[in-house]
Amino acid sequence: MCEGVVLQLDDTPVMCQAGRGEPNFRAYLWTFINPQVNAVVYRFTAGRASQLIADEMQGFKGTLVGDGYSGNAAAADKVDVDIPIACCWAHVTRKFRDAEDEAPGTAKLFGDDIRRLYDVEREADEAKLDPEGRVRLRRQKSWPILAQ
Q1: Greatest CA separation found in the chain?
Q2: Structure confidence by residue, pLDDT tens digits, 1-28
């Protein structure tokens, strides 16, 4: 699971039943995705402490892509190599949608740019590019969008 240069991580809160007479509690289902080896690992935890997910990252030497949760960075700090943290465009998009009422023009501008980034990814998918080809296409088409 820890092969490759990208590891995607997200968590979903779930309500769990405790023992008889005990109150229900919030737990988490973590999804670790490695697109380079076409693998998914699920981990269920009773809490959200960073050590609980750091164990899954031992041996990983790439970039961790997540939703901006501070525990992701704290977990990455607990492993023996430097793991850069990147944010997921789907989560970024959601924040701009939330801002539409407050700043509709700005939200639309960024939303349009994010859609253009997704168009580049769709182009790479349709062309069935290998990882190196995808990097070249991103450098050619995505970087100028991000620089703007």
Answers
A1: 60
A2: 667 788 899 999 999 988 888 899 999 9
